[in-house]
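Look over this one:
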Amino acid sequence: MDFADVGDPVSTVSAIGLPTDEDLPQSMVERITSILDTFDRRCTRLTLEQVASGSRLPRSTVHRILDQLVNLEWVEHASFGYCLGRRFFGLVGGDEGRGQLRGAAAPILHELHLRTGMVVHLSVLEGRENVYLDKLGGRFAGAVPSRVGGRQLAHATADGKALLAWLDPERIDAMFEVTLPRCTERTITELAVLHQELSRIRHRGGVTFESGESTPGVSGVAAAIHGYEGAVGSIALYGDVRDAQLERVAPMITDAVREVSRILYPDLGTSHRRRKSLSVQAKTFSAETVNRLSRGSRSPILLSTDRGPRR
């Protein structure tokens, strides 16, 4: 660089490789497009500095535009940075990343089914219901009345409780009435009992069990797939209540959800807010559920009220 140019701000900026005002997109549409183009995947999470670097826009400009995009729900902002928002997904695909979730989980669900022979579910939470994104069946598939795109009350299924457990208790209160709808004689029907069950699920790392709560004769085990800000889906195994070895297959579920999380969020484990380990421990069912199952079931269900699973 010629020393004669040091006093010229435009020459200095050009010399060190920074964009000048002439290089920057002139219209707001162009600037917004440059910012959105930095998010190369649906689950990409970027800091303000990364967006500014990728878009080659001044940091102050990027910050101002991102604030407006967040307010309009085109972009989301949380402790881990910025990502594409609900409004964006509603425009481009309508599935809010569900296609990517299904794609990441598909080979893992297939492996679970081959190893266990049980029915495998992939679910997400919508309000008070879990929605089935995928289902792999076996000889018992006909007894499990779920289908891809179908719904079930979240508080009655292992799939749903695995997701509800990671919501704030205040949000659970806002979602449910004091008395909950009943699917079977074993469904949890009191909000206070549901809170107890969700607390126990969290204390044992997220592994969730149910036996005949959503469908008579069917039992299941599930755990949540975690993203940057909480649970984004769940994987469950279901079988015949008379012979389903839920504690034996529970570690397979925890391995499966960890693997899907790793695929979708490869830097999640390095975050300063690393999620809790999904180790199985403590009580399997709430006291209310244990009493209900003990009174009503003659089958050898594996109830673990004071020990961890067999490995």
Residues 17 and 24 are 13 Å apart (CA to CA). The radius of gyration is 24 Å.
